[in-house]
Protein: Arginine biosynthesis bifunctional protein ArgJ
Amino acid sequence: MFRYSEERFYEPLLKTMKNVLAEMESKQRNTMIKNITNVRGIKCWGAHIGVKSMRRDLALIYSEVPASAAAVFTQNQVVAEPIKVSRKHIADGKAQAIVVNAGNANACTGEQGLAGAEAMAETYASELGIDKDLVLVASTGIIGEPFPTDDIVEGIKENVDKLTNKSNAGAFVANAILTTDTFAKEGFIEFDVNGYEVNLGGIAKGSGMIHPNMGTMLAFLVTDVAIEPKLLKRLVKKAVDRSFNMITVDGDTSTNDMVVVLANGMAGNEVLTKEKDPGCKVFYENLENMMIHLAKLIVSDGEGSSKFVQYQVTHAPDELTARKLVRTISDSSLVKTAMFGRDPNWGRIICAAGNAGVPFDYENVDLYLGDEETQIQVLEKGVPQDYDRHYMKKLLRESHIYVKLNLNNGRATATGWGSDLTTDYVLFNSVYTT
Structure:
């Protein structure tokens, strides 16, 4: 029987793909797009060290000065080893550097994995000449595989001297944290805080294992605003609840979720200490908007998805009730499959709302379905409305679908985002490791 070398069989394809990637990165270098490198004092780099076969797989982020730091971590009871290290290091509200590897989650790896996460922090700190407690560690990839500590440690040593604030480095680091993602997720904004120009940039990854309370998702935001650590922590938690905790793709919360914000104070503004400060309100608004931007990019890249669905609950008695309803509806497999099939089966939405664990009187609600421009009322105060089903199915063919539920019972509103559930998702995840 004829047998071939798998490596030789794929060699022409690999060469072609590498050439394409090199061309894309060359174009990125020549396109001056603002990113996290435009935040004062921030340097970064993204490298390929061989943990993943094709993509860059090591991300390095560094602030020239120690920064106020806040983070939100996974709520899964199974916690990856880098999460344990980062929780400990950020406890004092200070950090200066972040190191991330892709291709191996370093989860369910026991003492060997914990030693590997510690080695990442120690090596990066030593190379930078800073305290190891100022280094945060993250990993993403397959769970349960032995952690390639030696390869990653060597990769850190080889790439620290490449840290730079050049624009191409921002693109490199955004690509270096990806796994099944099909595109890098970035954002940058400038705004004024009490007369000082402030920059805020962010990168994120996520495509599958996305669920409220965060999914296999990493997000790193850096800003040069000066802010007190305890206040930053409160603002980050609030913003995460309204952004990353309002998205879902498949209902699975990962072991590695992490959202980190570093604020190094190099904008020169007077340190923000109170939420009532007008400057703090401006900063929070932009922080929340950036997180929502990154969260929506994650949903739009959902594994196998064909639809981006926005869910909104209005006139609820309080925001917590509205958020619970959005999260329950958006995570319903029956609702997701209806979105995939362009089926205006609004009963599934009402049924999901009734399972949210909050008071819900369907006889008092209005429900609307449609696309970005047109939403048709299908329920008014609990009474089904006549509508053109063929026209509705045409609206539901669009890639962006909108679901709006008016409770007519208060003034609070919540918005969330999800994808549909497709046959492609099942096929992709049935052979994830093989």
